[in-house]
Specification:
Rossmann fold, binds iron/sulfur cluster, alpha/beta
Length: 228
């Protein structure tokens, strides 16, 4: 057994015992498929949800579909507010997010941050698959922190896992995952804002690749949280 699996299980069980109701936000990326597998395999009883921005890759929708046949744990899907999308598109066009960082952040706010708020409504904590290795913006990521934006506890139980450890678990347990990973996409977001990367690039270099690395977060994980 991976030596990090026991601490991971202990942390998730601690979240259930002390921070219920907690929600696990899956982007259906490789880390999140690992967490879904653990939550389902060990029947941890943690609510799972995803944010359907409306701009995901077809491979991601295919994977979401496949989870229904593989896991007993359902994934609740939260969509953006239709009026928000219509207003944004009327003002900026469907791809206005390429025009400036504020317009990109506005699109992420409408399609991700606001649906996240709805998904977290009534929760005391949320769980993510973030890891320190993923980006310069995540190098000091703690295992748990206080999320001031959402006013609740946030757990990052894979913070210390390496890419090799993640893939070892995925292969050992034959965890279903996005076909895009094999095509050079270690980090997968919306289709128009994600590209494949070269092996030497930062794991999140393909996300909003036209922007400076320091601004490449979507607003779901602002780094102004107090560690706890
Ligand atoms: S990643 Fe791109 S398409 Fe998706 S919400 Fe953000 S700006 Fe919009």
């Amino acid at each position: 057994m991976n030596e990090k699996l026991e601490p991971l299980l202990a942390l998730l069980r601690d979240v259930v015992e002390h921070w219920s109701p907690a929600g696990f936000a899956t982007s259906l990326g490789i880390e999140d498929m690992l967490l879904l597998d653990v939550i389902d395999r060990y029947k941890l009883g943690i609510d799972v949800f995803t944010l359907d921005t409306g701009r995901l890759h077809q491979d991601t929708y295919d994977l979401l579909q496949r989870t229904r046949g593989r896991y007993h744990t359902p994934i609740a899907v939260f969509a953006p507010d239709a009026a928000d999308i219509e207003a944004y598109v009327a003002e900026n066009g469907p791809n206005g997010f390429y025009d400036s960082v504020p317009l990109r952040q506005r699109c992420c706010h409408i399609r991700k941050v606001k649906p996240l708020r709805r998904a977290l409504d009534g929760k005391r904590a949320w769980i993510t698959g973030l890891r320190r290795e993923q980006a310069v913006t995540r190098q000091d990521l703690p295992l748990s922190e206080w999320d001031t934006d959402n006013n609740m506890k946030k757990f990052n139980p894979l913070a210390e896992w390496s890419t090799v450890e993640i893939w070892d678990y995925i292969r050992q347990h034959e965890v279903i995952h996005n076909d895009l990973h094999a095509k050079g996409y270690p980090s997968i977001g919306c289709e128009p804002c994600t590209r494949a990367i070269a092996p030497t690039e930062d794991l999140r270099a393909g996300r909003w690749w036209w922007e400076n690395a320091a601004s490449r977060e979507c607003g779901l994980h602002p780094r102004d949280m107090s560690h706890a």
